[in-house]
Design a protein that fits this description.
145 residues, alpha+beta, N-terminal domain of TfIIb, 2 domains, five-stranded antiparallel beta sheet, binds zinc ion
Length: 145
Amino acid sequence: MSSCCNTPPAEGGKKPEKRKPTDCPQCGQRAMPVEAITVLHHAEQPWALELEDQWWVCENPDCDQVYVNEHQQLSQAQLRDLPAGKQADEHALVCFCFGVTRAQATEPAVREFVVQMTRNNRCDCTIRNPAGRCCLKDFPKPSAV
Ligand SMILES: [Zn+2]
């Protein structure tokens, strides 16, 4: 099953298969495991890929590769959209489920909306977010109130 943000990491949270991060073959930085279905929904030509492979996502903004494994690498140019970490500008989407840009993500009401949606299981991060995980990590930290 998908491992979204609202899955409590607490007891009993056993996942059938827990893959470890790997080093991006391009930049050497840590790349996180990502599901094939994520790659499928963001690659420009998913039909050309070997989706049975396991995939990792490199979110290093200075690295041109995004989805990687030992046989294949997908560069930024080979994707339909990019993980938020790859794009610094404020018009870049950080929440792909609800279309929130980096600029909008600074608004407390917007953040609260997304928090509520994830709590209520209304998000679809594994498929929609190119990073394959909850977008709230990409939101600017709420300033201490
Ligand atoms: Zn990389």
